[in-house]
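Researcher: Structure for this, please.
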Amino acid sequence: MKGFIGLVVLAATVSSGCALNGVLEVEMQLPYTDGAAPRARIQVCAVADCEADIDTHGHAEVIEIGPGATPCASGGDCNARFSVVSDQTDLDRLQVRVRFCVDDCEYDLGRPDAPELWFELEEPFERGRRTYWNPSEPPYVRIPDAQPAGRPSAPTVIPKCEIADECWSLGNTPDPMFGYCDAAMRRFCEE
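Model: Predicted structure, token format:
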């Protein structure tokens, strides 16, 4: 039986009735330069339920990332924020794909050379809690300064200790050896 995974783009809050769900808060600075694709399609799905084809699987939202478009600043910085809500809190891996599009993101899906970022997050959820992932923030910068030239051949795997939980003080710097985990490689809220 497949569980529920939902994507909420630019969500400030999510319903407080999430005692059995996990919520992953994602913030990423998408690259944008003159002449780059002005839109991005963000897709999330459980890796076990996904196929390599981004075109037809998972939950997706299209956001505008060009100058003057929300959520971009006038300088071209494009800060995308979204929440992923899931009742599959024991999920081993979550796929996050960002496809950059020129005109129509649905049309661009068929292009094998469309620029794309592809991540697989290990153990991204905790039951009844929020976790946080920002691939644009040091020391775990995973977003390039410019849009990629095409599709990657494999995902960038994000270890669970690069994903913070709500017991981590978000203003602190992750431990150089253990990241957002303790010495036993458990996040701080994990029992």
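Researcher: Any notable elements?
Model: The first strand starts at residue 5 and ends at 9. DSSP finds one helix and ten strands in the chain.
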